[in-house]
């Protein structure tokens, strides 16, 4: 088993064992909103968290309540993400893992260049900004269209590592938000 696979397996197991997850997600989302206010975004690309992912059920309503236009990914076969504007109550199970996806008109990943901030899922980050995703590369390919936008990973405290394995195609993040606060990385 390679080192990325091992970290993914360990993290997934730890997330599944979390108790009172909502009590952890609320401060994480609060720290995220506080950080976003310093960036003054209008349009935010985010994700629809799976039950074990950071942000949980609090993430999307909080972003909308702040007044942000929120874009969420739509997963296509072949490793491509498209995007659609999130409207509360207008999510449907997607093609992969039943991830909730918006039902509105689809936009290509080039739309990320029009976002002020991009919030990405992660199984871990390291102190240089290396992000460990699920392993299919969807976000790494999509992030190629977002050259200057701040990228924020949502992770739990124990998912910030000193070092993680990285491949040349891995797209870094600038910041991690955890239940304990905000961690910025060198650019």
UniProtKB/TrEMBL annotation:
Q: What is its EC number?
A: 6.3.3.2
Give the UniProt keywords, A-Z: ATP-binding, Ligase, Magnesium, Metal-binding, Nucleotide-binding
Annotated GO MF terms: 5-formyltetrahydrofolate cyclo-ligase activity; ATP binding; metal ion binding
Q: Name one Pfam family in it.
A: 5-FTHF_cyc-lig
Known cofactor(s):
Mg(2+)
Quote the SUPFAM superfamilies the UniProt record gives.
NagB/RpiA/CoA transferase-like
Give the record's GO biological process terms: folic acid-containing compound biosynthetic process; tetrahydrofolate interconversion
Q: Which residues bind ATP?
A: 4-8, 131-139
Q: Where does substrate bind?
A: 53
Catalysed reaction equations from the record: (6S)-5-formyl-5,6,7,8-tetrahydrofolate + ATP = (6R)-5,10-methenyltetrahydrofolate + ADP + phosphate
**Where is the segment annotated Disordered?**
165-187
The similarity comment for this entry is: Belongs to the 5-formyltetrahydrofolate cyclo-ligase family.
**Protein name (database record):** 5-formyltetrahydrofolate cyclo-ligase
Organism lineage: Bacteria, Bacillati, Actinomycetota, Actinomycetes, Mycobacteriales
